[in-house]
Write a structure and sequence with these properties.
Length: 333
């Protein structure tokens, strides 16, 4: 092959690799370095860390075109798949790899466990290598396996494989399901109203990951005072509990209301809970009370002064002798 033709092939390969890198950057998950376990998009992580481009390197499910790796098997099964790490740069790239459990933070965000902290699906994953060096403008395929424990319970067991270069860590989600009966169930708990917001806890009581739909409404003494359109919440993993907030800055100033929070998900999973709240404009009440106290105080002071003045007039009249008594006194003298 001529030198010009070889250069053309290399250039075409570089262009072909740059597109998967961009796609992977959008689909990959990253760990929030500050929190140690929070997942966020590569774009947000790169912007926060000063990376010039998400295409510096990327990790995605092997073969491309998949947002995550899905594997299913019975207890005792060994499942296999691959990851792809793309290096579009001009220098070799050394990537560190580690498996991890996935979970929800208390506020609902998806997260992964830190190194050596996994106790679930992250411990079932075995990588062909925990460190790989990817040549320039090359995509490397890294095999891995998942060994389902013999006593694993049916349902979803979320995990991930994280790839790190320097301070940046991105990952690929491993959606692992153990074959068997599944249950979609959730509950809404601890509904409270304070601070201009509705607070509630959402719990996944089943063994499958759910994407809940939330509906919030409130009824006052004279009719409905709040009705929010249904909206989709972030994915809630099995056995996870999250505490969420629905802002309500325009609640009634004076009313007694009952707030209803309802959630639904696939496979007819439904739940709801209610809470009562009383709104009183305490500023106006305190102001009115102060005015009433001032009026009452002024009235009391006026009454006291009036009583004193009347008493002095009576004392003066009783001290002066009557006209008859005065004449008799003068005659006797």
């Amino acid at each position: 092959m001529r030198r010009g033709s070889l250069l053309a092939v290399v250039a075409a390969l570089a262009c072909a690799l740059s597109a998967p890198a961009a796609r992977a950057a959008g689909a990959g998950w990253a760990v929030d370095a500050a929190a140690g376990a929070g997942w966020k998009s590569d774009a947000a992580r790169a912007a926060g860390a000063g990376w010039k481009s998400d295409a510096d390197w990327a990790v995605e499910p092997g073969g491309g075109g998949r947002p995550y790796v899905y594997l299913e098997g019975v207890p005792g099964a060994v499942l296999e798949d691959k990851l792809s790490v793309t290096n579009p740069g001009a220098q070799p790239l050394t990537v560190r790899l580690r498996p991890a459990d996935a979970y929800n933070t208390s506020s609902g965000s998806l997260a992964v466990r830190g190194a050596h902290r996994s106790t679930g699906a992250g411990t079932w994953i075995t990588l062909a290598s925990d460190r790989v060096t990817v040549p320039p403008r090359t995509r490397a395929e890294i095999p891995f396996s998942v060994t389902v424990p013999p006593g694993a319970l049916p349902g979803d067991h979320p995990g991930a494989v994280m790839a790190a270069v320097g301070e940046r860590e991105a990952g690929v989600r491993i959606h692992l399901r153990v074959s068997g009966p599944t249950l979609a169930a959730l509950t809404v708990e601890d509904v409270r109203v304070f601070g201009g917001a509705i607070h509630y806890t959402l719990v996944n009581r089943g063994n499958t990951a759910l994407t809940p739909r939330l509906t919030v409404r409130a009824d006052g003494l004279f009719g409905q005072v709040l009705r929010r359109a249904p909206r989709t919440l972030p994915e809630l993993l099995p056995a996870q509990r999250v505490t969420l907030t629905e802002k309500w800055p325009d609640h009634p100033s004076l009313d007694s209301v009952k707030v209803h929070v309802e959630a639904s998900a696939a496979d007819d999973a439904r739940a709801g809970a209610s809470a009562s709240a009383t709104f009183v404009p305490w500023g106006a009440v305190v102001g009115a009370a102060g005015a009433l106290l001032a009026v009452a105080g002024g009235t009391a002071l006026w009454w006291i002064r009036l009583r004193r003045s009347t008493g002095r007039e009576r004392d003066g009249r009783s001290a002066e002798p009557a006209d008859g008594q005065r004449e008799l006194t003068e005659a006797a003298t």
